[in-house]
Amino acid sequence: MTLFKPLLFTLLLISSTSNADPSFPMVKATAALMKQIKVIAIGEGQVHDSFRLPARIDLDQQHVARIGATVTGRIIETEAVVGQEVRKGEQLATLNSTELGLAQSAYLKTTSQVNLRRLAVNRAQRLEASGIIAAADLQEREATLTEADVDLRTATDQLRAFGMSTNDLARLSKERKIHSILPITASIQGTIVERTVTVGQVVQPADALFTVADLSYVWVVAELPEQQASWAHKGDEAEVTIAALPNSALSGHLSYVADMVDPDTRTVTVRMELPNPRRNLKPHMLANLLIRKQDVQELILPDSAVLRVNDSDHVFVETGPEEFQLRPVKLGIRYGNVRRILEGLKQGDKVVVEGGFHLNSERQRKELE
Q: What is the 3-state secondary structure (H, E, C) of the chain?
């Protein structure tokens, strides 16, 4: 159930009265009934609008990395565990990949082909300059070298995609030995919050093996009902309280309000970002998010004046001395003990805020007669 913070309001007493509409029921109050009736004039009130939502603490997705293998292979070693603090580039596991070995073999073969064809082109250039071979023969060997260069670039790009650095490629070219072992390293600094791999497991590039998160930042996420979708905006003041951390209200601003409604829950996601230097805000903790608006002037009505008649809201409006009219109204959501007036009343209308039930009983009695 959505809760609202009580709001401060001041009703302005205005002497003017409304003209009666003959289409609405009229009630003449007796002197005894008038003693039970309290009437005030509708006016504007200064309200401090607020809206409270159930929320949760979540990972800051801008500081999360899901780490996997860049090539298909089998895990042969891993010592990283959930909760471990890791640095960027720190090794989390070791992978043995036949696919990586085949790619290195293709790279070495292509490198040899390029070297041989480059020698052939150099020799052809000297022969062509001496008039021993035709220019067409030289062009043919240059075209063959170009094809080999393309194959080498392709093989190089594949090894880079598999995670080999420039230094790794230089060592491979120098040593000309295939290394099918590949380290899996952390791409950011943070804490391992999830691990889904064990030694001996065969993994593929689509598999997420580790999730590393920087927990010094978290999100507070809440779902705003579709009916109030236009109520919250990015930059609105917000305050979060957490049941597990009493007396720890944290203030900030909304950093995100979704542009789309979730079709399943019919809600709009809102988010607040919080620093978490002490790590006392744990992801998945339950919280309450209070969204505040600046003070505004609104035409308001005490909730005690509202009567439910035929499943709709009505109020009694004073139209003359001891005369009252039952009038339908359209009201906004409840804020503490008042309601916003949307339709049916204007500033200065005098309404019954106490004794409306007795007036309605008198109306029903006369209708039965």
A: CCCCCCCCCCCCCCCCCCCCCCCCCEEECCHHHHCCCEEEECCEEEECCEEEEEEEEEECHHHEEEECCCCCEEEEEECCCCCCEECCCCEEEEEECHHHHHHHHHHHHHHHHHHHHHHHHHHHHHHHHCCCCCHHHHHHHHHHHHHHHHHHHHHHHHHHHCCCCHHHHHHHHHHCCCCCEEEEECCCCEEEEEECCCCCCEECCCCCCEEEECCCEEEEEEEEEHHHCCCCCCCCEEEEEECCEEEEEEEEEEEEECCCCCCCCCEEEEEEEEECCCCCCCCCCEEEEEEECCCEEEEEEEHHHCEEECCEEEEEEEEECCEEEEEECEEEEEECCEEEEEECCCCCCEEEEECHHHHHHHHHHHHHC
